[in-house]
Amino acid sequence: MLSRTDLFGAAAAVARRVAGAPAAAVYGEASAATIVAVVGCLLAGVPAVPIPPDSGPREREHFLGDSGAALMLGSPPWDDLSLPVIPVDVRDRADIAPPAPAPTGGTTPTPTGGTTPTPTGGTGSAPPPALILYTSGTTGAPKGVMVPASAIAADLDALAEAWAWTPQDTLVHGLPIFHIHGLVLGVFGPLRIGSRLIHTVRPTPSAYAAAGGSLYFGVPTVWSRICEDPASARALRSARLLVSGSAPLPVPVIERMRELTGQAPIERYGMTETLITTSGRVGVERRPGWVGTALPGVRTRLVDDETGEPLPHDAHSIGELQIQGPTLFGGYLGRPDATAGSFSADGWFRTGDAAVIDADGNHRIVGRRSTDLIKSGGYRIGAGEVEAALLSHPAVREAAVVGLPDTDLGQRIAAFVVTTEAAPERAELVDFVARELSVHKRPREIHFVTELPRNAIGKVRKSALAPPPTA
Questions:
Q1: Which of 270, 330, 361, 368 could form a disulfide with 293 if both were Cys (CB 3.0 to 4.6 A apart)?
Q2: Cα–Cα distance measured from residue 47 to residue 49, given in angstroms and rounded to the nearest whole number
Q3: Closest C-alpha among 101, 110, 108, 103 to residue 194
Q4: Confidence category of residue 300, pLDDT binned at 50, 70, 90
């Protein structure tokens, strides 16, 4: 266990060792040493580059080479590194006064020096990055997302207001600390707010139950597993707030969580390039499938794919979600073309996500435009809506829906389903969706699978879904 004073003392010792480096890679295992290393980089004004512990040699080579990291902090087990490795000892100390809490809580150290391209690809300068985080690389080599400290501070202050997050809270989570969710929200959040953090290393139901926190973070897989352990779930009844993110939370899980814990988790939306931009609020009714309203300072709009025109906020029109605000990234490292291409001509960040917004400003994410906006027979269908319908069937445990090329329809709806022990007939599921939604939204194919492919934070990798080969 580290006090705030101990943490900043150990981080100051790291800062002395990395000062002047262009960037520092951090072995991103779930440990106090990782937190000390990242905070030390921030104190030194050196961009931190968290490296996932399960990354392969090719990924590591790209992350390290692309970021320009001059050293690696931590104790990675890899023997193929060509840069110096500096172990981190949380018992080391250097003289430093820990940053005093700001009016909203704590304060995030702000790096100094350096310039980066503006997000719109102009010739001005943007704040230097505090973090360089790599995208999933679904459309090529992963891009380094430069996240400035100013964006982190703006986002955490907005979330503190939305979630009534105070120094009296104890946050509990076991999420990876090399992503936005576990690192920025889950580590920098408590530092800025001044609250206590208990990281459970792994987000198991028993660990969450034993922690005795007031605020819990999880992804849908975490909450689903907690629902399967009723005793652990009931132990969370004393928590004042549960938060879910990184992927949509299935309605059956929401209903079961409400039954076992007395509350439904708040859902929020964001991505590496934007941080968290919309969220449910404390004291506001939680609507399954909706991720709340825009945070203070954030503006959102929907744009038609074909015409580029803004769409109405009528809870039905599906368009690309675009964002402006202080939480945006500083651009893609060394990729001014990709940076410029991610913004509209009038300066809005193009998320690539399909969404609807209602008249009150509430957002529902349909999914990625590239994989989750299905155009079939002249209809525009959100994969998330079909998935939600399937998940409401008692025999369906998990579901992922994609559009497959079709010579007649353009795309046909295909569902990949993990069932309970009592597997239904395919026709039963097709008819069930047709009754719950509309006939044109029914899956044309149902593929039963034992599990859905997921990444480190629980998101389904739809690019890995494919029908079995025909004989």
A1: 361
A2: 7
A3: 101
A4: very high
Closest Cα to residue 279, out of 244, 252, 314?
A: 244
Which residue from 429, 163, 437, 195 is spatially nearest to 296, judged by alpha carbons?
A: 163
- Does residue 243 contact residue 269 with C-beta atoms inside 8 Å? no
CA distance 23 to 4: 25
> At the topology level of CATH, where does 377-464 sit?
GMP Synthetase; Chain A, domain 3 (3.30.300)
Q: Transcribe 357-419 into DSSP letters.
A: E-TT--EEEEEEHHHHEEEETTEEEEHHHHHHHHHTSTTEEEEEEEEEEETTTEEEEEEEEEE
Both structure tokens of 134: 């790599």
CB 176 within 8 A of CB 52: yes
Q: Which pLDDT value is given to residue 106? A: 45
Q: At 433, is the secondary structure helix, strand, or coil?
A: helix
CA dist., res. 245 & res. 352, Å (int): 17
Predicted local distance difference test score (pLDDT) of residue 401:
92
Dihedral of alpha carbons 132, 136, 138, 142, sign: positive
Q: The pTM is what?
A: 0.79
Residue 250 CA to chain centroid, in angstroms?
16
* Burial (0-12, 13-18, 19+ Cβ within 10 Å), 237: exposed
Q: Does CATH place domain 99-370 in 3.10.450.50?
A: no
pLDDT digits (tens, 9 = 90+) for 346-387: 999 999 898 999 999 999 988 777 667 787 876 778 788 788
In which element (H, E) is residue 350 found? Answer: strand 349-357
Categorize the per-residue pLDDT at 127 as very low, low, confident or very high, splitting at 50, 70 and 90: low
Q: Does residue 119 surpass a pLDDT of 80?
A: no
SS3 36: helix
Domain ranges (residues) in the chain:
99-370, 377-464
pLDDT (tens digit, 9 = 90+) per residue, 156-165? 999 999 999 9
Per-residue model confidence (pLDDT) at position 140 = 60
Q: What is the pLDDT of residue 456?
A: 66
In 3D, which of 41, 120, 26, 139 has the Cα closest to residue 81?
Answer: 26
Read off the pLDDT band of 411 (50, 70, 90).
confident
Looking at every residue in the chain, the average pLDDT score rounds to: 88
Query: What distance in Å separates the CA atoms of residue 318 and residue 341, rounded to the nearest whole number?
Result: 22
